[in-house]
S-adenosylmethionine:tRNA ribosyltransferase-isomerase (Barnesiella viscericola DSM 18177), 349 residues
Amino acid sequence: MKLSQFKFKLPEAQIAQYPAKNRDESRLMVIDRKTGNIEHRIFKEIIDYFNEKDVFVFNDTKVFPARLYGNKEKTGAKIEVFLLRELNEENRLWDVLVEPARKIRIGNKLYFGDDDSMVAEVIDNTTSRGRTLRFLYDGSHDEFKEALYKLGEMPLPSYITRPVEELDAERYQNIFARHEGAVVTPAAGLHFSRELLKRMEIKGIDYGFLTLHSGLGNFREIDVEDLTKHKMDSEQLLVTPELVNLVNHAKDEGRQVCAVGTSVMRGIESAVSTGGHMKTYDGWTNKFIFPPYDFTVATSLVTNFHMPLSTMLMMVAAFGGYEIVLSAYDTALKEGYRFGAYGDAMLIL
């Protein structure tokens, strides 16, 4: 398929700037991919479509406050630093993006905090915008991370144009997030409240977790028309024996396996074994899924409404069927559904 086949006009007014008042009360569009039939529901009604012993798979990665603002030594120029990942714990080395990149050279020092309490030195240029920073800090690693994260703010996507607020620390995070490492939240999981998880348990619906540390590659613009030539950034993935056993048992019993989000679907498909089963995985994945694609494990998908030309939209179209999904997006636009990480949800059965 071609990149241009995933272009559509999205009015800015339909890009959600704030989450729904309650996590589980956003709108839910339910699509039957065999018939193309569409229903309009409230998210917490999702359990009406699942039975005892069906399995939901969540991503339990935890977003850290990755966006910092500092000042360059001597000139005092304001520099935005986006933390991508920690490269070396002992030496406080971090892989980062900086803006404006043209102002930063190897050897420059950057100062963070009102009192300039955190200092970093640029030690390497890795890409046009990427740098390696060495943070200069005397305390323990835990003290350093605590101090660093106090200076940072939640890395909301650029299409959320308002300033970051206090509510984002809680709402741009899944309630089950526990393994730190993501700079992009698995947005489909944001709709699940403690009350909804409890109601799932009461109904006998099982759930498990994989960990995929979602990175900025999810938002990187695709610059090739031929999708087979696009390369995804690698992301760290962990699939445990516990999850493998839970999913494979459900598959053997003919139960539903619901992937909650495109990151989960990518994780599952990176850990596929024979016969529509899963295997354990501990490593990196750069799997890029777009139509046509044969899914063998998940039987359903929960996802948000994504931006035009995005890799997430392509994966959803691969699962739900290109025509059905693009038609559903047309309906969503007409019906006033909200797009983006804080927007409404879609269930594809």
Notes: The first strand starts at residue 27 and ends at 31. The chain has a mean pLDDT of 92. The longest helix spans residues 322-335.
